[in-house]
Amino acid sequence: MMAVATDQTRADIKIVDKNIDSALRLALKDPLANADIIADLTQLKQDCSIAVKSIDNEAIAIASYYTDLPYNSLSLLVNSEDDTRQLIDELTGKHPQLRREPVFGLYTKTVTEIIEHCYKIIQKTPEIKMVLNNPDIPERLIDNSRYRLERLITQDLVQISHLYSLESAMDWTPKALTYGPYYGVYSGDDLVSIAGVQFAIKWAAEIANVVTHFKHRRQNLAYCCTKSVADKLKESCDNIFLCVLADNAPAIKLYEKMGFVKTEELYLVQYFIKGNF
């Protein structure tokens, strides 16, 4: 049962930058469900502004603003409307752009309902979280006379950025190349398919930014890139997952063939904090 703040146990709400131990303990109670928050507290912390609500120095709720993306991204570990408003108010005090521009977050049904009660929803899109449940992803061949599969490095950034300019990846940031493995397929001098990570920490890694140039689809390229990323992640990560649009049946079917299983429905929510009511 969650503690209630009284005269003896007052809630403390503040931005934290160094002492995140209590917040991390809270998030690690469910590492897979809270993977994004854990990543923000650890691997991505240099680009995150994190607000924590605590009672007696123990965190009970967390909000994180990830600043290294081309849109406003908020992750939440909350149980109530009060926690949500208080933490987001703390973040908007430091980052006023959060009240001027739309905010995005990938949330559970429960958190989505809290957001709907607190702010003005622009759009919510169902997604499916899928977790790898197969130690040996089946092989699929590509035409080696046309394509070559490579581990991507910083020297590939020009080609990576070019491909993502043609086939959009919402969560791409060049720093992601340093967070975990990226694999790509080249056709001649052109990068035509890619898969990588949004983050990769001990407790969980999220495969993301999977795209293939429209002229090179249905050649097993995305499959091979994703398999290569997953195989590499298995060396150091306890859980490997990805998120896919709930209505993208072909992608879901492909990932199921690789050994990913559906675990929960999430919502990609776009909303205005200034719509507070």
Question: Would you kindly provide a written description of the structure presented here, covering whatever features stand out?
Answer:
This protein has a twelve-stranded mixed sheet with strand order 1-2-3-4-5-12-6-11-10-9-8-7, sandwiched between helices. 29% of the residues lie in helices and 34% in strands. The chain is built from nine helices and twelve strands. The chain is α+β, with helices and mostly antiparallel strands and 277 residues long. It is elongated and about 65 Å long. It folds into two domains: 11-126 and 267-275, Gcn5-related N-acetyltransferase (GNAT) (Aminopeptidase, 3-Layer(aba) Sandwich); 134-258, Gcn5-related N-acetyltransferase (GNAT) (Aminopeptidase).
What does the secondary structure layout of this molecule look like, with pairings?
Blueprint: E1 11-16, H1 21-27, H2 35-41, E2 48-55, E3 58-66, E4 72-77, H3 81-94, H4 97-100, E5 103-107, H5 109-118, E6 120-132, E7 148-151, H6 157-166, H7 176-179, E8 183-187, E9 190-200, E10 205-212, H8 221-233, E11 240-245, H9 249-258, E12 260-272
Parallel strand pairs: 4-5, 10-11
Antiparallel strand pairs: 1-2, 2-3, 3-4, 5-12, 6-11, 6-12, 7-8, 8-9, 9-10
